[in-house]
Specification:
Largest sheet: none
Strand content: under 5%
Structural class: mainly alpha
Distance between the termini: 79 Å
Order of helices and strands: HHHHHHHHH
Helix content: over 70%
Shape: globular
Number of strands: 0
């Protein structure tokens, strides 16, 4: 009778071991590695195509304007997802590139561009928020350019140092820096997305388009805050735990989960939510990017 409880524990332990074995078999299989990387490439390609189609639709809708914030946002989405798609198509070849710093650049540069793409959305919301409160927005764009310049400069300096002396502490520092950048972006969405959401919520109920805009800001804020927060946490694990390393071929399942959660799914949802075309000229005023 005393041995009865042991059976369920033994079954659970066996199931856990079997699941671990399944995970390891897929990770170590060259065939499954290629399949997963090609699936990622296909998903990124689809998102890139959607962003490009939307960019063309916007251009056809308001051809008289130049590079508006909306056009730049969709172009950057196309660029980021297109480059990611190509990297995963040739993922095995990328891993063979020398010097090793080239691998880091090809894998990390799209992440920096992803940050810029969605920082642009934070900038757009900040401008709307301050304009609605009759506060000057003259310093917002210079701040946006300065922040991006600092982020790219620091990252390039880290790449050059790693190229000169590729020691593990420097690679950890590079990953922790990007973790911090991602956390900064998450807080930006929480701050300005939250402020804009609360401001819209105080508008009269009968305000035209209030409910739809409120949902749009709420959904996008939640999605982007979550994706950048998850990226920040994952980069911390990536920096200190070899089992969570994303820059190797034998972690395809982890790569799939990570890129699906922090880039593919958020980009797809945001592009869907922001799919509305700008109004035609003459219907309402449409401000180009300055």
């Amino acid at each position: 009778m005393a041995r009865t409880p042991v059976a369920p524990m033994a079954v659970a332990a066996y199931a856990l071991k079997d699941a671990s074995s399944w995970w390891d078999q897929i990770n170590e299989s060259r065939l499954w590695q290629d399949r997963i990387f090609h699936v990622l490439a296909s998903l990124y390609g689809i998102v890139a195509a959607v962003a490009l189609v939307q960019l063309v639709r916007i251009q056809l809708r308001v051809p008289e304007y130049g590079w508006t914030t909306q056009k730049v946002f969709h172009f950057l989405n196309f660029l980021v997802n297109g480059v990611r798609s190509l990297v995963f198509v040739f993922r095995r070849d990328v891993q063979k590139l020398q010097p090793e710093i080239v691998q880091h650049i090809l894998l990390d540069m799209p992440s920096l561009a992803f940050f810029t793409t969605y920082a642009l959305l934070v900038l757009f919301w900040a401008e709307i928020y301050y304009q609605a409160r009759a506060v000057s927005t003259d310093g917002l764009r210079p701040s946006f350019y300065t922040i991006n310049a600092v982020v790219y400069t620091v990252q390039v300096v880290l790449w050059l140092i790693i190229w000169w002396k590729p020691i593990p502490p420097l690679i950890i520092l590079s990953k922790m820096f990007f973790s911090g950048v991602s956390l900064f972006a998450a807080l930006g969405f929480l701050l300005y997305g939250g402020r804009l959401f609360l401001m819209l919520k105080r508008f009269p109920v009968e305000s035209k388009g209030r409910r739809k805009k409120l949902q749009e800001v709420g959904y996008v804020t939640t999605i982007c805050f979550t994706c950048f927060l998850v990226r920040s946490i994952m980069m911390c694990f990536d920096a200190f735990d070899e089992a969570a390393d994303l820059d190797v071929l034998d972690h395809p399942i982890l790569n799939f989960i990570y890129y699906l959660l922090v880039e593919i799914l958020p980009s797809s949802l945001v592009l869907f939510i922001l799919r509305k075309l700008p109004p035609k000229r003459g219907i309402t005023q449409y401000h180009p990017i300055r």
